[in-house]
Amino acid sequence: MGDTYPKRHHGTQDLCRIERFDRLLTSVCRTIILMIMQPLFSVFLRGVDGFFVIALLMFFAGCNPSQHDTAAASPAPGPGVPSIQFSQASGFEGVREGGNAKITQTADGLQIHASDDPQLLLPRLEVTGNDKWVVHVQISSPSDTGIQIFYDTTKNAAFDEAHSVRKPIRKGDNDVTMEINDSDFGGNLRLDPGDMAGEYLIKLIEVRPTGRDSSAPSPAASP
Predict the structure, then answer these.
(1) Are residues 58 and 109 in the same domain?
(2) How far is 170 from 200, CA to CA, in rounded Å?
(3) What is the pTM of this model?
(4) Does 152 fall in a domain?
């Protein structure tokens, strides 16, 4: 007969010890994994926060373009487009005497001493791409008469009745608007403030485009 070895039986206590060991091992592994991952996760979160901050800054920067960018993108003519103005503030720079007129700058505006049918010459306009212009005049007249704006064309450099716009004005203060609608407009203007002799006072001459090719430059006056 061979040797007989006693058999070992695992009781309930042994099973409990094994389960506790398993739970302890699992807990230790989790702790080690968290210790390793926590710094990496924190860096990730900081990177995510930084990404969102940068994205928000870029968004708001894009919604608020600088003044330089705004100025570079010139809008089409219409409300808000700067006009060419001749007034007391600008000293009526570029406005010249024509026939039958003697002009003097005063504290109230440009005084015109007219012998008969006075004429004023305005600086030449750069009209490339523009075919519609508005001439706005604030004027005090010595009598009931008519104000008239003459313009030249690319085919006719002389001023004539066919290329003019006339509006009636009354004695005293007047606010008049005249429109030039001619695709051949050459850029030169002559303003006849009235037909009668006397003292006229111009407070404002404003010239502005009302139609322009989007590729055309902003309007300017040449001396």
Answers:
(1) no
(2) 12
(3) 0.60
(4) yes
